C-alpha cells in the first residue's frame, strides 16, 4: 500500500467502517510509515476537537 491509499483510508475510516482487508493493509503500512502514523494521529486529534466543539455548541 502506498501513502496516498493509506491516507485516503485513514480519512474514510472516520466516515465508514473499513473492511478486514483494508484494516490489515492499513495496519501493515502504518507499522512502516511514520508519516502516515502522524497523519492518523492528527486526524484523530482533529476529529476529537470537532466533537468537543459540537458538544460545546450544543450546551449554549
Mind explaining what this structure looks like?
The protein has 60 residues and is an all-alpha fold. It has one domain (3-58). Helices cover 80% and strands 0% of the residues. It has helices spanning 3-12, 20-32, 34-58. Helix 1 crosses helix 2, helix 1 (3-12) packs parallel to helix 3 (34-58) and helix 2 (20-32) crosses helix 3 (34-58). The longest helix is centred in the C-terminal third of the chain and has 25 residues, at 34-58. The radius of gyration is 14 Å and the shape is elongated. It starts with a helix and ends with a helix. The model has no long low-confidence stretch (mean pLDDT 94).
How is the topology of this model organized?
Blueprint: H1 3-12, H2 20-32, H3 34-58
Q: Which stretches of 5+ consecutive residues score pLDDT under 50?
A: none
Query: Fraction of residues in helices?
Result: over 70%
| Portion in strands | under 5%
Overall average pLDDT = 94
Number of extended strands: 0
Shape: elongated
Structural class: mainly alpha
Count of DSSP-assigned helices: 3
Summarize the entry for a quick read.
With 60 residues, the protein is mainly α. Helix content is 80%, strand content 0%.
Name the descriptors.
60 residues, mainly alpha, 3 helices, Zf-HC2 domain-containing protein, Znf_put
Amino acid at each position: 500500500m502506498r501513502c496516498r491509499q493509506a491516507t485516503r483510508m485513514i480519512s474514510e475510516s472516520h466516515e465508514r467502517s473499513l473492511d478486514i482487508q483494508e484494516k490489515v493493509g492499513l495496519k501493515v503500512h502504518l507499522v512502516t510509515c511514520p508519516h502516515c502514523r502522524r497523519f492518523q494521529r492528527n486526524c484523530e486529534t482533529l476529529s476529537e476537537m470537532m466533537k468537543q466543539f459540537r458538544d460545546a455548541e450544543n450546551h449554549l
